[in-house]
Amino acid sequence: MDMIYLDNAATSFPKPEETYVFMDRFYRTHGVNPGRSGFDLCMETGHLVDETRALLTRFFNGTDPNRLVFGYNSTDALNLALFGLLAPGDHAITTTLEHNAVLRPLYHLEALGGVAVDYVRFDGRGLVDPGNIERAIRPNTKVVALNHASNVIGTVQPVAEIGRICRERGVRLVVDASQTAGKIPIDVQAMHVDVLCFTGHKSLMGPMGIGGMYVQEGVEIRHTRAGGTGVRSAHRAHLDEYPWRMEYGTPNVLGIAGLNAGVKWIESRGLEAIDAHEMRLTRRLVEGLREIPGVRLYCQDDLENHIAVVLFNVEGFEAGNTGTILDVDHNIACRTGLHCAPLVHEQIGTAAIHGGVRFGIGPFNTDADIDAAIAGVREIAAARART
Predict the structure, then answer these.
(1) Would the pTM of this model clear 0.85, i.e. be above it?
(2) Distance between CA atoms of residues 144 and 153, nearest Å
(3) Are 115 and 340 in contact (CB under 8 A)?
């Protein structure tokens, strides 16, 4: 029996065949260091990097491809943004929905950097009230940092409204788009996003180890690293110009190639079509799980502002045990535990029972996959009820 993969919120799998083929062909023929030499192959490789900057800038409705910078992933980009925007005496606002990619840099800045942080709670639907963000702003607030969609409960936050408030109050908005880039439209202009951080290995259909951020014009992030850029090598300080300002050393050319192919695949399929497919399956899954006695769903009552992520538990059963049985007995891959987002679980009451079971649906999942998942959970819940 083939594995049913429902862990797409952790990483998309499989990738489109186009991603695999292009990465292999490109690295075999263009696996040289871009921007470091003047020979033709080097220039062609650099062209691919530049093309991908432009591709992603259009994808996010940015204005300047040079301000699309590459890094390892969202965590890498968020560290650069938060450590580069905040200084001792500053105040930052975030939410209890965040992944540790946001929380841990802010914890460090609180403990070591003299930065004060407020954590705004979400409501019973899993949404953050923009008014609560506004009420938390102080005279020394410099940054609001939040995810576009929760990796635990799948709720999509009202980023555009929060962005408008931030813009009016002179506060920088840093958005973690790990779960939404490649799933739903992102418009950094309309949403008033100052720094958009993304990863390539989830819904952008690229490989692991590539990601980055788009930095709006007028937003300057302090240097927290320094190194080679391949240009102006005699200059002793790291360069101030974008994209080199936020890039260090040899880029992940293979990852950029995969990201290029992944985004082009998304554009060929259509972002709206991908989202419609995933959300249709999500509704099928939620409806099926809701009918099973002993299954508890979290923040799934309204799927209007949602991505294809579903969190649940079988009452009286540890999430880890549910995941193990789904894997061993039903060949279903999912994610259990705290999902690197402990404050979410603290607020919904699942931290004390070691988290929940998360199904993450992707573009290659089918109705049969969803039906098998429902049947597997039904069997587990029935067995639990008999004990």
Answers:
(1) yes
(2) 21
(3) no
